[in-house]
Predict the 3D structure of the following.
Amino acid sequence: MSYHRYHISCEKCADVIRRPNRFRVRVIRWRLARMLLHELFHSRFNLPVVTSRPCVYGTFSGPVGGFAPRPSQCVGCLRCTIEYPDMVRVCPNPERLGLGDSYFTPDKVDAVVQEAATGQIPVRGAGYRGAFGGEGWDGMWTDMSEIVRPTRDGIHGREFISTAVDLGERPGVLAFDPAGIPTAPLPRPFSLPIPMLFDAPPVLAEDPTLCRVLAEAAGRLQTLAILPLSRLLALGVGGSGVAPLVRPAEIEATARLAEAPALLELDGWDDGAYRELKRRFPVTPVYVRLPLERDPLLVARSGVRLFHLTADYHGRAAGGFVGGAIRRVHAALVKEGIREEAVLLGSGGIVAAADVAKAIVCGLDAVALDTVPLVALQGRLEGECRDRSTARIALPRIDQAWGVQRLCNLAGVWRDQLLEILGAMGLREVRRLRGEQGRAMFQADLEREAFADIAGFEG
Ligand code: SF4
């Protein structure tokens, strides 16, 4: 066995639907002509000087320069408008407002599509200009202290940071009889090289090609695509990258699986169905998929340790945001003394690379991506996409090889961003990030600490 460092191969994979530019760039041409004439005389006809325009991103580097700007190149740094305020206007492109929905905002859609197309982390020109706090994941910050900078080379490969996660069963104690024979279940190691799986797509978007793309991309990434059993059987899709999602009424149909899958997921809690699945697939980790509204402790008391906890696509769960719900479950499992035995997968509300790290800080072991893979494939959200049973996402005609590469690009870029975060936090493996809430700051907590004693504060 030779050692291979895990690597995701990214390559450019062009959009099949034109993506609206982020900005509109307007130039008042007669003023530009007047200025060029002035510069010609001033520089004594030094053309390289006259034709050098201020945009380093190439917006004014087309054949006729600023007379026909190329807004696709503009990153919104605003340098041109600052240097030539009476000549250039750069505004947000209103065409983009139709992308996404109220949670998966146009900026986030744009970032995901760009990541899938280029396989590179998006560059934003002028840095971050938004608010430093807000709803959902924006109300949480990871600790990137100067003091831990020495570990920050992981993304460049000089120093290895592991993104592998363990998703198998791990009993709290090992018990043996006097003859040394194990009397209790032994740990069944099962790891993935990245803490990201693909979740079952929305019911109304369960396109056969999409299912094949998810399965093949998961296989190539050495992770898993959770797909409904009925769909897998109908399409004849299988292989190492597939984790069947089984409804309790479908237990008999699992006999038609060609081989034991790497992982199984039971859709909802049913004691009898769970025991039967465990009996039929004794070495396969069997996860129980539960909405975060259900208390997993009640199910854990039946011996279940592997959970996939779901929020809706807008990250709402149990009357609040998914981050808080995960923290409560994590804390309850710690209090019960079984957190080290349990594995928590989670999905819902994760639409950016940083969300993965934040969800893990809150207490997840790994995340399952639901709407993001479809957006990476240039699926268009139709109206508000809130949950798996009602969300409508219109997909373009997908070429399978194109789709697989887009998802590999997305996973590669998100892994790189996770490495950046881990490096900046001084962590050498993502397993240590799980539940590490002391390394995060929560806006609500900070505001309460700072303002609780001030009359009128409503925390
Ligand atoms: S805003 Fe920045 S990126 Fe856009 S055209 Fe002006 S200089 Fe170029």
